[in-house]
Amino acid sequence: MATGTLPAARAEPRARPANADLSAWLAVAAGTLGALMATLDISIVNSALPTIQGEIGATGTEGAWVATAYLVAEIIIIPLSAWLERLLGLRTFLLIAVSLFTGFSVLCGFANSLVVMIIGRVGQGITGGAMIPTAQTIIAQRLPPHQQSMGTAAFGVVAILGPLIGPLVGGWLAENVSWHYAFFLNVPVSFILILLLVVGLPHQPAKLHLLREADWIGILGLALGMGGLTVFLEEGSREEWFASGLIQQMAALTVVGFILLFYGQFTAKRPVIKLALLLDRQFGSVALMGMALGVVLYGTSYAIPQFLSAIAGYNALQSGQVVLLSGIPSIMLMPFVPLLLRYLDIRIAVLFGMGIMGLSAWMETGLTADSVGSDFTESQLMRGVGQIMGMLFLSQAVVQSVPPEDAGDASGLFNSMRNLGGSFALAGISIVQQNRMWLHSRRLEETLNANSPDVQGYVSGLGQAMGNASAGIRLLGQQIQQQALVMTYNDIFFAMSLVTLAVMPLVLFLRPLPRNASLAGMH
Hints:
Largest sheet: none
Distance between the termini: 72 Å
Mean pLDDT: 82
Number of domains: 3
Helix content: over 70%
CATH topology of the largest domain: Growth Hormone, Chain: A
Strand content: under 5%
Structural class: mainly alpha
CATH superfamily of the largest domain: MFS general substrate transporter like domains
CATH architecture of the largest domain: Up-down Bundle
Low-confidence stretches: 1-6
Radius of gyration: 26 Å
Shape: globular
CATH class of the largest domain: Mainly Alpha
């Protein structure tokens, strides 16, 4: 019987990876919608804040609490999100978060005092902050690897656009309906979100035994430390610092809180925030640059509407349109994200992004009493470019800086550091407004000699124009206050530019990203 060699088996074509089904995309849509709602509410009050302050009886510096309370609450909840997902199951956790977020939004909408508003904003921050990192979890769990870049790109657009369109949406509602609906808007959106969550995410059993493993001391320390530090910074200047019993108590509370937080680092099996990651040269540098990024992002989105309202007489909608300008370059650059990651060195990209952010803030240091929204156009467009470059590459550097098992902790810590930068910016703006406003007013007054013929002639002319000599003096005082306020905002933008300049040398500690690095999410 003749024998022969059998032909080699033909290689089977590699099976095409299965695409995500409809329920998976509904889950991604739910996560993205939740993240949009949460990021939108970070800044939705900024342009309408002058109106809100007037109706709830808050001063300009007290009004900063309406924005700060949300950011501080987010700082506390973001590191806890991964643990809460495991404890309750992702769907149950998100359903609870969305329901509570809706309730706190309604509370903000009905608020008639600063205290009620702050309670509502803290509740919004805690529950809304939980929806942001979970959106990235849904993308990782429900989409196959070859489709995750699509989900991540959608999330990236939301993460950038949310804080930018917030002032525009809030401003439009404040001008055409009522500022209350900036919060009531969340009710129908939450209803849609709950339907998507029920359909798109499977139920997972709760793991209540994890309650015993929680870093309760660290959680308590984080809440006390961040809460106390925020009150200390916000109220310190107004209360004359340690001359006030309240400030003394807040300082003590801050110290106790951070002691508890550090104690948890050494005693808990899994600390609430893994602060040891900051000791890594690259991750520590990324975290500090992320904090500086938060200072400029949240600081400018708060300061620009306040300036335009006080100096140019802009309404909430007009201010929101100016803030939205920085989103245009971000959206235009988003399709090129994969190419940028593949071919652009992270050190060059971050240096360029942070430099543009700092330059955009420096361009706003030459404001005058005649400045209007168009004077912010160039700086806002530049800020959009710097934002996408800085956020994009720093977010990628986070997961590349630590071992895979620490990626979740690193992402939570990075996001908390960026929000912490925003909280410091808002507190710093309040402090600068109080101190520099007084200083510039006194300096301007010192240049005016009451016996000077020029001064007397000017005041007399104002009095004749107003039909009342005393009215001329009052008008001069108002002009002094206006000029002092403009100079104060110039100081604020200059300080932001210095913050970015200070951290730019840290790019030397960054390592190039791997060529095949997967696209990490941004927030």
